Structures are given as C-alpha cells and as structure tokens.
Amino acid sequence: MFVEFIPASMHFSSLFKEALTAALILSPLLGAMPAQAEISKPAESTTTTEIQTSQPAQSSILDIAKRNENFSTFVAAIQAAGLEKVLSSDGQFTVFVPTNEAFAKLSEGQLEALLKPENKNQLISILTYHVVPATVTSAEIQPGAVTTVEGRSLQLAIVDSKVKVNQATVIATDIKASNGVIHIIDSVIIPSAQ
C-alpha cells in the first residue's frame, strides 16, 4: 500500500495547524492505540549510534523518544516547544527524529538559542518541519515532495540505496508507535526561509 502525499504546490498548512491545535486540546481525552515497536536498519549504516528499539506495545512517539538516551536532545526540544501532547496524541504521524549527534552538528550556540522561551515559535517551526501528518513506513516512501505539519515541504530522495530527507540521511527506519512511526536521521532539518 502506498501513501499518496499532498503535492507541495497545494497549501494546507492552516488545516494541519488546526489539526495540531485540536490534538493539543483533545489529547488528554484520547488513549493510545496498541502497536508493535520494531526497526529495520539500512544495509550500510554510516553511524555508530545504537538505537534502542524494543518498546512496549502501546508506546507513543514521545514515549519511545523519552526512553531512548540517543533522543534526549530531541525530547528537550519537544518539551521547550510545548509539543509533548501532540506526540502523545493518537493522531497518525511520521516523525524524522534527529539523534543527539545530529543536534550536535548545529552551529555553536544555535541549539541553546532555540531552546530559549523567546525563540519558541522558531523551535516549533523546526520541530513540526520534521513531522508528516500520516504514517509512512520505509516501504511506502517515494521520492518527491511531502507536506509537513509545519506547512512547507520536505524533499525525499533515494541516493545510493539510502533515503534522504532534504540533506539529512535516514539511518534507521520503522520504529512503530501507537500514533505513527519514527525514522531516525543524522542531521536536523532546518526549513528554508519562505
């Protein structure tokens, strides 16, 4: 089964922002759906980061991230942006999660600046740029543009048998959660200025 992505030329950012707001409001009332956590790593991994993949059946994307020390910076950013309820809600998402090593590649002082309360809107923009509002497994990824929750598009490509998301490389795929799937990337994806 292939997921049909919304073309980049169609602008549904307000719809996604409304869905995001609804998820924030309704998430305390919603329960998690059962899922099975598993992972498939690319044949040739260029990183030595070990990712914990054994998760309880009802783990949300946020629960999985919180239990993995390689995602502690991502979790801190999610908390600073106030997006915890979204990644715990039972909406269906695909999240391209940068590792701690990926965040360490940001320019000096950039992460610290993003985590300040006065930069919360910019942080939300960056984090929601890593989220697609549908569950897309590695087998369903097709080259081309895909609209994110942030409203702008990511470019997906397959280069030398590896999935690229803009300039980031997917280093592990298909960590299934009750509310979607996580693909792990080696760089933080910064949306270009509109």
UniProtKB/TrEMBL annotation:
The FAS1 domain, residue ranges: 58-189
Annotated signal sequence range: 1-37
Cited Pfam families: Fasciclin
Keyword annotations from UniProtKB, A to Z: Signal
Record bears the keyword Transcription: no
PROSITE patterns: FAS1
UniProt GO cellular component terms: extracellular space
Keyword match Signal: yes
InterPro entries tied to this protein: Adhesion/Biosynth-related (IPR050904), FAS1_dom_sf (IPR036378), FAS1_domain (IPR000782)
Stored SUPFAM superfamilies: FAS1 domain
PANTHER family attached to this UniProt entry: FI19380P1, PERIOSTIN-RELATED
Protein name: Fasciclin domain-containing protein
Lineage: Bacteria, Bacillati, Cyanobacteriota, Cyanophyceae, Synechococcales
